[in-house]
Design goal:
This protein is 41% helix and 14% strand. By secondary structure, it is of the alpha/beta class. It is globular and about 75 Å long.
Length: 406
């Protein structure tokens, strides 16, 4: 089939590459000409293991071509961002990219086409996309429209696009079946058919569940700090219970999914989404607490030495071992502390430059630092032995986290 993938970011580009590898002819569309040029050279603009080789092979074979313009296809996959807008009350979903993609598709769509929305979206978005296509003059009764959320882990995207189970929800039963048949051409996992609204809510519930569990761990870590207890040892001991699995504390929650999707649920029904909203607030508060802890430590160093303390912030990505800074709590910490009464040096081994933050190599940062604050548990940090007088560990970067039993 000829497949048009709209949005060539962290999900769209790997999906396009996997589709091309499976034998489809893929037209990748992105609004950024630099991204298009990079892909057409057989290169990539994101960090994801093994992706560059798959993209290079797909481009050289002619099965993958990138462009800024949407053209005719059999299947259209919409993989564009769905951020949220800040407001005085609650963050609300921003679907402008989805609707822009829908209008672009409407201009070339034909009878018999299949349109699938993969972008994480509030419940009802697929119905809105259908209505938009109808308003734009698309033959709505003679095309199939469905929703199928991605469920992949950065760092394992290529493997999980193929192996993970998928949920396909159509605006009607025929669209669900068409969508399931399409995913069977490149997915080995089970493919479950349902309606569009259920599929949309499933993705939101999955990430809200994770956010709630992370919030529990983060709240425990703050309580431990106030009570003089090592949270890492406490959680390791609690997890020895056969029915307990507390997650690890962190600087907060980032990434485009877990830090965003719960707000899509809350904004739909604020009165009843109380636990989900509280979890979001706990995880946001954890990042603010980290900022306060570092600031307080810097005040102590300043009072002792009489000079501006140097703080090395270790990690900027939203999770370990990736270059993805979207909604990263570590970036929020670094931004909040920069330009104040301390000198901030950021270390992120997976990126070379940052538009606003000063980056340094690991050794240089450790040499200059009065305070070392670990914000992200990158593998590159696990064997370090900082010489700074004060080391703050907010993510479990320790030489040995095993519990010693007598």
């Amino acid at each position: 089939m000829r497949v048009c993938v709209l949005g060539l970011g962290y999900i769209g580009l790997p999906t396009a590459a996997v589709l091309a590898r499976a034998g489809h002819t893929v037209i990748g569309v992105d609004v950024n000409p630099a991204v298009v040029d990079t892909i057409n050279r057989g290169e990539i603009h994101i960090v994801e293991p093994d992706l560059e080789g798959v993209v290079r092979d797909a481009v050289r074979s002619g099965r993958l071509v990138a462009t800024t313009q949407v053209g005719p296809a059999d299947v259209f996959l919409i993989c564009v961002p769905t951020p949220f807008r800040e407001s005085e009350t609650l963050p609300t979903p921003d679907l402008d990219h989805v609707f822009a993609a829908g209008r672009a598709v409407a201009g070339v769509i034909r009878v018999g086409n299949l349109v699938i929305l993969e972008s994480t979206s509030p419940v009802g978005t697929t119905d809105l996309l259908r209505d938009l296509l109808r308003d734009e003059g698309a033959p709505i009764e003679e095309i199939a429209i469905a929703y199928c959320p991605e469920r992949v882990l950065p760092g394992r995207i290529l493997a999980e696009l193929v192996s993970n189970n998928r949920i396909v929800g159509g605006v009607d039963e025929a669209a669900s079946i068409r969508g399931r048949e399409f995913y069977r051409t490149f997915v080995d996992g089970d493919i479950h058919a349902t309606d569009a609204r259920t599929a949309e809510m499933t993705k939101l519930v999955e990430n809200s569940f994770r956010d709630v569990n992370i919030a529990f761990a983060n709240e425990v870590s703050v309580l431990c700090a106030r009570l003089g207890i090592d949270p890492w040892e406490l959680i390791a001991l609690a997890n020895r219970h056969p029915r307990v699995n507390v997650l690890q504390p962190s600087t907060g929650v980032g990434g485009h999914c877990v830090a965003v999707d719960p707000w899509f649920v809350v904004s739909a029904d604020p009165e009843h989404a109380t636990l989900i909203r509280t979890a979001r607030e706990v995880n946001l508060a954890k990042t603010a607490w980290v900022i306060d802890q570092i600031s307080s430590a810097a005040d102590d160093v300043r009072a002792t030495t009489g000079r501006t303390p140097v703080v090395a912030l270790m990690g900027l990505a939203f999770k370990p071992n990736v270059d993805d800074l979207r909604e990263s709590p570590a970036v929020e910490v670094a931004t909040a502390l920069s330009g104040g009464a301390l000198e901030v040096v950021a270390v992120e081994p997976h990126i070379d430059v940052h538009p606003t933050l000063r980056l340094a190599a690991i050794d240089d940062a450790l040499e200059a630092a009065d305070i070392v604050a670990f914000l992200v548990r990158h593998d590159a940090f696990l064997s370090l032995s900082p010489r700074a007088g004060l080391v703050l560990d907010f993510c479990g970067v320790r030489p040995n986290q095993e519990v010693v039993t007598g």
